[in-house]
Design a protein that fits this description.
This protein is an alpha/beta fold. Helices cover 43% and strands 18% of the residues. The chain is built from eleven helices and eleven strands.
Length: 320
């Protein structure tokens, strides 16, 4: 194996650069030429690449985003687009591909593997919703970014005795919202995995807080589970409280990665190269039971990550 392509695809996540750096340095240690592919599968189709070396990735570990850029590529989903990607791999002399991203990235890598291109995937998404792995690159940084923003918001809301409705990202999963909600001591956490009764799970919790002389109430909402502005209005109408809605948005994807994301991404990037060099293909690097292991892409895509029921129970019981 002489040349390995590295790409990032789908939504960006803090720590992607650390994974790229580790993969590039691991290639250099083994006499392999690392080739950076710009803008995911779109760059692969159009041979938008650059040869990298150990020095070209200096100083990127602390940077958010991805130095290779990222994109979603509808063309790659077609048979013609896939064939163009395979042709590009052959033309560029790529013996393998490291694909960093989420489920969509894995599906693309699986198609490349079926077409004869060796592929290893690294899970990277702030939503932490990939079923085959306990942890995905970017989650810790996104959680800390949200917590920092909410802590600042809480200062001003407490000063004015207001109620805060804060929406965090999650892409249809509540792992980030639950984690953040526990960390900031939320009065209620609304997530898609747990149907909620607005009267009992929101209004009644606020009433109990007021009974205990609490003057600031914080409701965490996972994106897509409900209309955040409508929730704020309903609380305002039914309880007569001064309520504000805040959508944190895409700042959760940016920023310098935390130590956990830097170290985990570095381990996964190095592990992925070792797997390719050992002849493995069509695999996802997974973190389970404090160990890095490989899972076939097809199996990985079928796995669903359930919400931690104990964490949810803790969140409800300590909010009282």
């Amino acid at each position: 194996m002489r040349r390995i392509g590295i790409l990032t695809s789908g939504g960006d996540a803090p720590g992607m650069n650390a994974a790229i750096r580790a993969a590039v340095r691991a290639c250099a240690q083994n006499g392999v030429i690392p080739v950076g592919i710009h803008r995911g599968y779109n760059g692969l189709i159009h041979s938008d690449v650059v040869e990298l070396d150990a020095r070209s990735v200096n100083g990127i570990t602390s940077r958010g985003g991805t130095m290779l850029y990222t994109a979603r590529c509808e063309e790659f989903k077609t048979d013609a687009g896939l064939q163009m990607a395979v042709n590009a791999c052959n033309y560029l002399g790529l013996n393998g591909i490291i694909a960093i991203g989420g489920d969509g990235t894995f599906r693309g890598a699986g198609k490349l593997s079926a077409a004869g291109i060796n592929t290893i995937c690294i899970p990277a998404t702030i939503d932490n919703d990939i079923g085959c792995t306990h942890y995905s690159i970017g989650f810790d940084t996104a959680a800390n970014t949200a917590i920092g923003a909410i802590d600042k918001l809480a200062d001003t809301m407490q000063s004015h005795e207001r109620t805060s409705i804060v929406e965090v990202m999650g892409h249809g999963a509540g792992h980030l919202a639950l984690y953040v909600g526990i960390a900031v001591g939320a009065t209620a956490i609304l997530i898609p995995e747990k149907p909620f009764d607005f009267e009992q799970d929101v209004l009644e919790h606020i009433r109990e807080g007021k009974y205990r002389n609490k003057h600031h109430h914080l409701i965490i909402v996972s994106e897509g589970v409900a209309d955040t502005l409508a929730i704020a209005q309903r609380i305002r109408d039914e309880l007569g409280l001064d309520t504000r809605a805040t959508i944190i948005g895409h700042i959760q994807r940016g920023g310098s990665p935390t130590a956990r994301d830097r170290v985990m991404a570095t381990r996964m990037g190095h592990f992925a190269i070792e797997a390719l060099l050992a002849g493995k293909t069509n695999q996802v690097v997974c973190y389970r039971n404090s160990q890095l292991v490989l899972t076939p892409i097809d199996e990985a895509l079928q796995m669903k990550k359930s919400l931690d029921s104990y964490m949810y129970r803790v969140a409800k019981e300590v909010s009282i």
